[in-house]
Amino acid sequence: MKEEITVKGISLKCDACGEFIELSDLEGAAFIVGDNDGSEVENQARDEEGWLVVGQRHYCPECWEYQGDGTIKTKDGRIYDGETLKDITPWTPNLVHVKVVTSRPLDFSGEHYEAVDLGLPSGRKWADRNSGQSLIDNPEDYGFLMDFDSAQDFPLPAGWHIPTKEDFKELCDHCTHEWVDKDGLRGMRFTGKNGNSIFLPAAGYTWFDEDDHGTTLYNRGSNGYYWSSSFYSATIAYNLCFNSTGVNPQISSGRRSGFTVRAVQ
């Protein structure tokens, strides 16, 4: 049912675009609220009148749209049933571009790296950029965040693979590390005994589950998290973690965490 909003002095913020408005400016405006069911809600949605309110989420009229298939799609990527307003957004392992905070189909054929020799005992060479950075045409971008399973399936170029937890330990044991600001990105520079170095940006992390489909970023610019290929358990895997105070080469984290990847060969 439609509700007449007469409350003054309370603010409302759109969860998609961030529009911030006083409810006193919306007196008499139609709201479509998420505790309704049946055709009345559907008809309101077809008319696309007013704000959409689903649980704790709010969408201004410009940020949601009724679709021909009977669903409502919002600009932050949510999908709701057009009649019941139930959240039916599908959950799948995904990739998220750190700066844009969105997912999109990609042509992975353009993914490429330059091998950096750090003079490590194993002879291991590290990529000069994060996975996904080649697709963004900026080697100093953050790259993509992936959950653990997506990271293992990421189509790396021939001859490249995700480092093991032992690779991360070797990197930390045989390179110096320094927290730096490089081309506007904060992160850690690892320098080998031969003088060569790689820069790992502090891309932060996200989380992939039914409630947060990789849309919320945490600790960007202050912490870096990089997946290994090493399992700890069915739900936990190893990763490299760092911030301005130091590095942990073998920390364990939930496999639904969205971290960056730096390939090796």
Give the CA-based shape.
elongated
Main sheet strand line-up? 3-4-5
Radius of gyration, in angstroms, nearest whole number:
23 Å
Beta strand %: 25-35%
Oligomeric state as shown? single chain
Helical content class: under 10%
Describe this structure in words.
With 265 residues, the chain is mostly beta strands. It has two domains: 11-81, no CATH class; 95-258, no CATH class. It is built from three helices and 20 strands. It has a three-stranded mixed β-sheet, with helices on one face. The chain has a three-stranded antiparallel β-sheet with strand order 6-7-8. The chain has a three-stranded antiparallel β-sheet with strand order 13-14-15. Helix 1 (39-47) links the parallel strand 3 (31-33) and strand 4. It is elongated and about 65 Å long. Mean pLDDT is 77; it is low at 1-10, 23-48 and 97-105.
Give the structure's gist in a few sentences.
By secondary structure, this protein is mainly beta. The protein has helices at 39-47, 148-153, 165-174; strands at residues 11-13, 20-22, 31-33, 51-54, 57-59, 64-66, 71-74, 79-81, 95-97, 115-117, 125-127, 144-146, 175-182, 185-192, 197-201, 206-207, 223-231, 236-243, 246-254, 257-258. The protein is built from three helices and 20 strands.
